[in-house]
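Let's practice the habit of predicting before peeking. Look at the sequence and jot down your guess about where helices and strands might fall. Then scroll down.
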Amino acid sequence: MLEYDVIVIGGGIAGVSAGAQLAADAKVAILEMESQPGYHATGRSAAYFAPAYGNATVRNLTAASEGFYREPPPGFTDVPLLRPRPALFIGREDQRAGLESMRADNRSLDVVDGDALRRLVPVLKENEVRVGLLDSGGGDLDVSAILQGFLQLFRARGGRMLTGHGVGALAYGHGAWRVEAGDSSLTAPVVVNAAGAWADRLAVLAGLQPLGLTPMRRTAFLVDAPDGIDIADWPLVIDADEQFYFKPDAGRILVSPADETPSEPCDAQAEELDIAIAVDRLMRVADIDVRHIRHRWAGLRTFAPDRTFIVGFDPRADGFFWLAGQGGYGVQTAPGIAQLAAHLLTRRALPPDFSAIGTSVTAVLPDRLLHGVPSL
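Done guessing? Here is the structure:
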Protein backbone atom coordinates (compact mmCIF):
# COMPACT_ATOMS: atom_id res chain seq x y z
CA MET A 1 0.00 0.00 0.00
CA LEU A 2 1.40 3.39 -1.07
CA GLU A 3 0.58 6.14 1.42
CA TYR A 4 0.29 9.82 0.51
CA ASP A 5 -1.12 13.05 1.90
CA VAL A 6 -2.91 13.88 -1.37
CA ILE A 7 -3.76 11.79 -4.43
CA VAL A 8 -4.52 13.83 -7.55
CA ILE A 9 -6.52 11.92 -10.15
CA GLY A 10 -5.86 13.35 -13.60
CA GLY A 11 -2.59 14.33 -15.23
CA GLY A 12 -3.75 17.24 -17.39
CA ILE A 13 -2.69 20.82 -16.79
CA ALA A 14 -5.12 21.23 -13.86
CA GLY A 15 -3.91 18.18 -11.96
CA VAL A 16 -0.23 18.71 -12.70
CA SER A 17 -0.18 22.42 -11.80
CA ALA A 18 -2.12 21.83 -8.58
CA GLY A 19 0.06 18.83 -7.76
CA ALA A 20 3.18 20.96 -8.17
CA GLN A 21 1.85 23.53 -5.71
CA LEU A 22 0.67 20.94 -3.18
CA ALA A 23 3.96 19.03 -3.30
CA ALA A 24 5.67 21.97 -1.59
CA ASP A 25 3.88 21.04 1.66
CA ALA A 26 2.65 17.47 1.21
CA LYS A 27 3.46 14.01 -0.13
CA VAL A 28 1.56 13.93 -3.43
CA ALA A 29 0.90 11.36 -6.16
CA ILE A 30 -0.73 12.10 -9.51
CA LEU A 31 -2.56 9.27 -11.27
CA GLU A 32 -2.99 9.47 -15.05
CA MET A 33 -4.83 6.77 -16.99
CA GLU A 34 -2.99 7.44 -20.26
CA SER A 35 0.65 6.65 -21.00
CA GLN A 36 1.62 10.32 -20.75
CA PRO A 37 0.31 13.41 -18.95
CA GLY A 38 -1.64 16.02 -20.89
CA TYR A 39 -2.93 13.54 -23.47
CA HIS A 40 -6.53 14.75 -23.73
CA ALA A 41 -7.76 18.38 -23.44
CA THR A 42 -4.38 19.86 -22.45
CA GLY A 43 -2.53 18.42 -25.44
CA ARG A 44 -5.27 19.55 -27.85
CA SER A 45 -5.61 23.13 -26.64
CA ALA A 46 -5.73 26.03 -29.10
CA ALA A 47 -2.88 27.38 -26.95
CA TYR A 48 -4.09 30.95 -26.62
CA PHE A 49 -4.17 33.32 -23.65
CA ALA A 50 -7.41 35.32 -23.92
CA PRO A 51 -7.95 37.89 -21.15
CA ALA A 52 -11.44 38.81 -22.45
CA TYR A 53 -12.64 35.20 -22.69
CA GLY A 54 -15.25 33.78 -20.32
CA ASN A 55 -17.34 35.12 -17.46
CA ALA A 56 -16.12 37.44 -14.69
CA THR A 57 -14.70 34.60 -12.56
CA VAL A 58 -12.83 33.14 -15.52
CA ARG A 59 -11.41 36.56 -16.42
CA ASN A 60 -10.36 37.12 -12.82
CA LEU A 61 -8.40 33.86 -12.69
CA THR A 62 -6.94 34.56 -16.13
CA ALA A 63 -5.73 37.96 -14.95
CA ALA A 64 -4.23 36.35 -11.85
CA SER A 65 -2.26 33.94 -14.08
CA GLU A 66 -0.90 36.53 -16.50
CA GLY A 67 2.10 37.60 -14.44
CA PHE A 68 3.23 33.98 -14.08
CA TYR A 69 3.15 33.46 -17.83
CA ARG A 70 4.85 36.72 -18.70
CA GLU A 71 7.58 36.32 -16.07
CA PRO A 72 7.82 32.65 -14.99
CA PRO A 73 9.56 31.79 -11.70
CA PRO A 74 13.33 31.22 -11.98
CA GLY A 75 14.12 27.75 -13.28
CA PHE A 76 10.57 27.00 -14.43
CA THR A 77 11.42 27.19 -18.13
CA ASP A 78 14.09 28.38 -20.54
CA VAL A 79 11.63 29.47 -23.27
CA PRO A 80 8.93 32.17 -23.33
CA LEU A 81 5.58 30.82 -22.15
CA LEU A 82 3.51 33.65 -23.63
CA ARG A 83 4.20 35.33 -26.96
CA PRO A 84 2.08 38.42 -27.65
CA ARG A 85 -0.69 38.07 -30.22
CA PRO A 86 -3.83 40.22 -30.08
CA ALA A 87 -7.33 38.84 -30.55
CA LEU A 88 -9.73 40.41 -33.03
CA PHE A 89 -13.47 39.86 -32.61
CA ILE A 90 -15.12 40.49 -35.99
CA GLY A 91 -18.69 41.05 -37.01
CA ARG A 92 -21.10 41.80 -39.81
CA GLU A 93 -23.29 44.88 -39.56
CA ASP A 94 -26.03 42.82 -37.89
CA GLN A 95 -23.52 41.68 -35.26
CA ARG A 96 -22.54 45.21 -34.28
CA ALA A 97 -24.90 45.34 -31.30
CA GLY A 98 -23.40 42.14 -29.89
CA LEU A 99 -19.89 43.58 -30.14
CA GLU A 100 -21.04 46.81 -28.49
CA SER A 101 -22.45 44.77 -25.61
CA MET A 102 -19.15 42.89 -25.33
CA ARG A 103 -17.23 46.15 -25.12
CA ALA A 104 -19.61 47.52 -22.49
CA ASP A 105 -18.65 44.53 -20.34
CA ASN A 106 -14.93 44.90 -21.04
CA ARG A 107 -13.70 48.43 -21.69
CA SER A 108 -10.15 47.25 -22.47
CA LEU A 109 -11.36 46.23 -25.93
CA ASP A 110 -10.70 48.75 -28.72
CA VAL A 111 -13.11 49.35 -31.61
CA VAL A 112 -11.61 48.63 -35.04
CA ASP A 113 -13.39 49.23 -38.35
CA GLY A 114 -12.87 50.18 -41.98
CA ASP A 115 -9.37 49.97 -43.38
CA ALA A 116 -7.93 49.22 -39.94
CA LEU A 117 -9.53 45.77 -40.07
CA ARG A 118 -7.84 44.96 -43.37
CA ARG A 119 -4.49 46.22 -42.10
CA LEU A 120 -4.67 43.68 -39.32
CA VAL A 121 -5.91 40.84 -41.53
CA PRO A 122 -5.71 41.73 -45.25
CA VAL A 123 -7.88 38.79 -46.39
CA LEU A 124 -11.02 39.87 -44.53
CA LYS A 125 -13.86 40.62 -46.97
CA GLU A 126 -15.04 44.21 -46.75
CA ASN A 127 -18.68 43.38 -47.52
CA GLU A 128 -18.78 40.72 -44.78
CA VAL A 129 -16.63 42.12 -41.97
CA ARG A 130 -17.71 45.64 -40.98
CA VAL A 131 -16.63 46.08 -37.37
CA GLY A 132 -14.25 44.56 -34.86
CA LEU A 133 -12.96 44.72 -31.29
CA LEU A 134 -9.26 44.30 -30.57
CA ASP A 135 -7.94 42.75 -27.37
CA SER A 136 -4.23 43.61 -27.25
CA GLY A 137 -3.48 41.64 -24.09
CA GLY A 138 -3.58 38.14 -25.54
CA GLY A 139 -0.92 35.81 -26.83
CA ASP A 140 0.13 32.31 -27.85
CA LEU A 141 0.87 29.93 -25.00
CA ASP A 142 3.56 27.26 -25.19
CA VAL A 143 1.41 24.51 -23.68
CA SER A 144 4.13 21.88 -23.83
CA ALA A 145 6.62 24.10 -21.99
CA ILE A 146 3.99 25.02 -19.39
CA LEU A 147 3.09 21.39 -18.71
CA GLN A 148 6.74 20.32 -18.60
CA GLY A 149 7.57 23.19 -16.26
CA PHE A 150 4.91 22.14 -13.78
CA LEU A 151 5.94 18.48 -14.09
CA GLN A 152 9.56 19.39 -13.40
CA LEU A 153 8.51 21.44 -10.36
CA PHE A 154 6.27 18.62 -9.12
CA ARG A 155 9.05 16.04 -9.33
CA ALA A 156 11.65 18.38 -7.83
CA ARG A 157 9.38 18.73 -4.79
CA GLY A 158 9.18 14.96 -4.39
CA GLY A 159 5.88 14.32 -6.17
CA ARG A 160 5.28 11.00 -7.93
CA MET A 161 3.58 10.71 -11.33
CA LEU A 162 2.01 7.33 -12.15
CA THR A 163 0.94 7.01 -15.80
CA GLY A 164 -1.12 4.14 -17.15
CA HIS A 165 -3.01 4.15 -13.85
CA GLY A 166 -6.72 4.41 -14.54
CA VAL A 167 -8.76 4.38 -11.33
CA GLY A 168 -10.80 1.20 -10.92
CA ALA A 169 -12.03 1.60 -7.35
CA LEU A 170 -12.30 4.45 -4.87
CA ALA A 171 -13.56 4.10 -1.29
CA TYR A 172 -13.35 6.06 1.97
CA GLY A 173 -12.87 4.54 5.40
CA HIS A 174 -10.96 5.07 8.65
CA GLY A 175 -10.09 8.66 7.69
CA ALA A 176 -8.57 7.96 4.29
CA TRP A 177 -9.40 7.24 0.68
CA ARG A 178 -8.22 3.97 -0.79
CA VAL A 179 -7.59 4.14 -4.54
CA GLU A 180 -7.09 1.11 -6.77
CA ALA A 181 -5.40 2.21 -9.99
CA GLY A 182 -3.56 0.05 -12.49
CA ASP A 183 -1.52 -2.43 -10.49
CA SER A 184 -1.22 -0.10 -7.48
CA SER A 185 -3.14 0.47 -4.25
CA LEU A 186 -2.79 3.94 -2.76
CA THR A 187 -4.22 5.68 0.26
CA ALA A 188 -4.52 9.34 1.31
CA PRO A 189 -6.86 11.46 3.43
CA VAL A 190 -7.49 13.73 0.43
CA VAL A 191 -8.34 12.88 -3.17
CA VAL A 192 -8.36 15.63 -5.81
CA ASN A 193 -10.75 15.02 -8.69
CA ALA A 194 -8.93 16.54 -11.67
CA ALA A 195 -10.23 13.93 -14.10
CA GLY A 196 -11.43 16.34 -16.79
CA ALA A 197 -14.18 14.82 -18.93
CA TRP A 198 -14.28 11.85 -16.53
CA ALA A 199 -14.75 13.98 -13.36
CA ASP A 200 -18.43 13.15 -12.84
CA ARG A 201 -17.74 9.45 -13.40
CA LEU A 202 -15.03 9.59 -10.76
CA ALA A 203 -17.50 11.18 -8.34
CA VAL A 204 -19.94 8.30 -8.92
CA LEU A 205 -17.10 5.86 -8.25
CA ALA A 206 -16.60 7.67 -4.92
CA GLY A 207 -20.29 7.23 -4.05
CA LEU A 208 -21.45 10.74 -4.97
CA GLN A 209 -24.13 12.00 -7.30
CA PRO A 210 -22.50 13.83 -10.25
CA LEU A 211 -22.59 17.61 -10.52
CA GLY A 212 -23.84 17.78 -14.10
CA LEU A 213 -20.55 18.33 -15.91
CA THR A 214 -20.83 18.16 -19.70
CA PRO A 215 -17.85 17.27 -21.93
CA MET A 216 -18.14 19.10 -25.26
CA ARG A 217 -16.19 18.30 -28.39
CA ARG A 218 -14.14 21.11 -29.95
CA THR A 219 -12.68 20.58 -33.44
CA ALA A 220 -9.59 22.18 -34.99
CA PHE A 221 -7.54 21.72 -38.14
CA LEU A 222 -4.72 23.30 -40.12
CA VAL A 223 -4.87 24.75 -43.64
CA ASP A 224 -2.27 26.43 -45.85
CA ALA A 225 -1.83 30.19 -45.73
CA PRO A 226 -2.69 32.20 -48.88
CA ASP A 227 0.19 32.37 -51.36
CA GLY A 228 2.44 35.37 -50.97
CA ILE A 229 0.90 36.63 -47.73
CA ASP A 230 2.85 36.83 -44.47
CA ILE A 231 0.46 35.68 -41.75
CA ALA A 232 2.94 35.61 -38.85
CA ASP A 233 1.59 38.76 -37.18
CA TRP A 234 -2.11 38.18 -37.76
CA PRO A 235 -4.23 38.26 -34.61
CA LEU A 236 -6.44 35.44 -33.45
CA VAL A 237 -9.69 36.18 -35.33
CA ILE A 238 -12.97 35.27 -33.62
CA ASP A 239 -16.49 35.64 -34.95
CA ALA A 240 -18.65 37.93 -32.78
CA ASP A 241 -21.04 35.05 -32.08
CA GLU A 242 -18.14 32.59 -31.69
CA GLN A 243 -19.22 30.56 -34.71
CA PHE A 244 -15.58 30.06 -35.78
CA TYR A 245 -12.07 31.32 -35.17
CA PHE A 246 -8.70 31.16 -36.90
CA LYS A 247 -5.10 32.12 -36.15
CA PRO A 248 -1.56 31.58 -37.41
CA ASP A 249 0.06 28.35 -36.27
CA ALA A 250 3.61 27.44 -37.30
CA GLY A 251 3.24 28.92 -40.81
CA ARG A 252 -0.25 27.55 -41.38
CA ILE A 253 -3.70 28.66 -40.25
CA LEU A 254 -5.47 26.91 -37.38
CA VAL A 255 -9.23 26.93 -37.91
CA SER A 256 -12.10 25.83 -35.66
CA PRO A 257 -15.89 25.97 -35.99
CA ALA A 258 -15.93 26.68 -32.23
CA ASP A 259 -18.21 23.66 -31.89
CA GLU A 260 -19.59 22.56 -28.54
CA THR A 261 -21.07 19.12 -29.18
CA PRO A 262 -21.99 17.22 -25.99
CA SER A 263 -20.04 13.98 -25.78
CA GLU A 264 -19.41 11.03 -23.55
CA PRO A 265 -15.87 11.03 -22.10
CA CYS A 266 -13.67 9.57 -24.83
CA ASP A 267 -10.62 10.02 -27.03
CA ALA A 268 -12.33 12.67 -29.17
CA GLN A 269 -11.87 12.71 -32.94
CA ALA A 270 -12.62 15.41 -35.51
CA GLU A 271 -15.70 14.84 -37.67
CA GLU A 272 -15.99 15.73 -41.36
CA LEU A 273 -19.19 17.75 -40.91
CA ASP A 274 -17.61 20.04 -38.32
CA ILE A 275 -14.62 20.61 -40.59
CA ALA A 276 -16.88 21.41 -43.56
CA ILE A 277 -18.89 23.88 -41.47
CA ALA A 278 -15.72 25.66 -40.37
CA VAL A 279 -14.34 25.86 -43.92
CA ASP A 280 -17.61 27.37 -45.15
CA ARG A 281 -17.66 29.99 -42.38
CA LEU A 282 -14.01 30.86 -42.91
CA MET A 283 -14.30 31.30 -46.69
CA ARG A 284 -17.44 33.40 -46.25
CA VAL A 285 -15.52 36.15 -44.41
CA ALA A 286 -11.96 35.74 -45.71
CA ASP A 287 -10.26 35.32 -49.07
CA ILE A 288 -8.67 32.02 -48.11
CA ASP A 289 -8.97 29.20 -50.63
CA VAL A 290 -8.99 26.01 -48.57
CA ARG A 291 -7.75 23.18 -50.79
CA HIS A 292 -6.31 20.75 -48.27
CA ILE A 293 -6.81 19.92 -44.62
CA ARG A 294 -3.26 19.36 -43.39
CA HIS A 295 -4.01 18.06 -39.92
CA ARG A 296 -7.17 17.63 -37.85
CA TRP A 297 -7.97 16.86 -34.23
CA ALA A 298 -10.60 17.29 -31.54
CA GLY A 299 -10.66 17.56 -27.76
CA LEU A 300 -13.22 17.63 -24.99
CA ARG A 301 -13.80 20.85 -23.05
CA THR A 302 -15.79 20.07 -19.90
CA PHE A 303 -18.20 22.63 -18.46
CA ALA A 304 -20.20 22.90 -15.25
CA PRO A 305 -23.86 23.92 -15.71
CA ASP A 306 -22.98 27.57 -15.00
CA ARG A 307 -19.75 27.42 -17.07
CA THR A 308 -17.65 28.31 -14.03
CA PHE A 309 -14.85 26.22 -12.53
CA ILE A 310 -15.50 23.77 -9.69
CA VAL A 311 -12.76 24.03 -7.07
CA GLY A 312 -13.19 22.96 -3.47
CA PHE A 313 -14.10 20.22 -1.02
CA ASP A 314 -17.36 18.38 -1.56
CA PRO A 315 -19.41 18.75 1.66
CA ARG A 316 -20.97 15.32 1.06
CA ALA A 317 -17.72 13.37 1.44
CA ASP A 318 -14.70 13.91 3.69
CA GLY A 319 -11.51 14.63 1.79
CA PHE A 320 -13.03 14.67 -1.71
CA PHE A 321 -11.82 17.80 -3.53
CA TRP A 322 -13.10 18.96 -6.92
CA LEU A 323 -10.77 20.51 -9.51
CA ALA A 324 -12.93 20.30 -12.61
CA GLY A 325 -15.06 22.15 -15.15
CA GLN A 326 -12.19 24.15 -16.69
CA GLY A 327 -14.02 24.32 -20.04
CA GLY A 328 -11.83 26.04 -22.60
CA TYR A 329 -9.94 28.07 -20.01
CA GLY A 330 -7.84 25.43 -18.24
CA VAL A 331 -4.40 26.28 -19.61
CA GLN A 332 -4.70 30.05 -19.43
CA THR A 333 -5.89 29.94 -15.78
CA ALA A 334 -3.71 27.06 -14.54
CA PRO A 335 -1.31 29.10 -12.35
CA GLY A 336 -4.18 30.92 -10.65
CA ILE A 337 -6.37 27.86 -10.12
CA ALA A 338 -3.40 25.85 -8.81
CA GLN A 339 -2.69 28.51 -6.20
CA LEU A 340 -6.37 28.72 -5.30
CA ALA A 341 -6.60 24.92 -4.95
CA ALA A 342 -3.52 24.84 -2.71
CA HIS A 343 -5.00 27.64 -0.61
CA LEU A 344 -8.29 25.78 -0.14
CA LEU A 345 -6.62 22.42 0.51
CA THR A 346 -3.89 23.50 2.90
CA ARG A 347 -5.03 26.93 4.11
CA ARG A 348 -1.73 28.23 2.82
CA ALA A 349 -1.87 31.99 2.29
CA LEU A 350 -2.10 33.11 -1.30
CA PRO A 351 1.09 34.73 -2.63
CA PRO A 352 0.78 38.52 -3.08
CA ASP A 353 0.66 38.17 -6.87
CA PHE A 354 -2.36 35.85 -6.55
CA SER A 355 -4.16 37.48 -3.63
CA ALA A 356 -6.90 38.90 -5.88
CA ILE A 357 -8.17 35.41 -6.74
CA GLY A 358 -9.41 35.05 -3.17
CA THR A 359 -12.51 36.92 -4.34
CA SER A 360 -13.31 33.95 -6.61
CA VAL A 361 -13.58 31.37 -3.81
CA THR A 362 -17.36 31.49 -3.38
CA ALA A 363 -17.97 31.42 -7.13
CA VAL A 364 -16.00 28.19 -7.69
CA LEU A 365 -17.03 26.07 -4.68
CA PRO A 366 -19.01 22.92 -5.54
CA ASP A 367 -21.64 23.84 -2.92
CA ARG A 368 -23.42 26.06 -5.46
CA LEU A 369 -24.31 22.98 -7.54
CA LEU A 370 -25.49 20.75 -4.72
CA HIS A 371 -29.04 21.96 -4.06
CA GLY A 372 -31.20 18.85 -4.16
CA VAL A 373 -28.27 16.59 -5.07
CA PRO A 374 -27.96 13.87 -2.40
CA SER A 375 -25.21 11.34 -1.84
CA LEU A 376 -25.70 7.95 -3.46
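How did you do? The first helix runs from residue 13 to 22.
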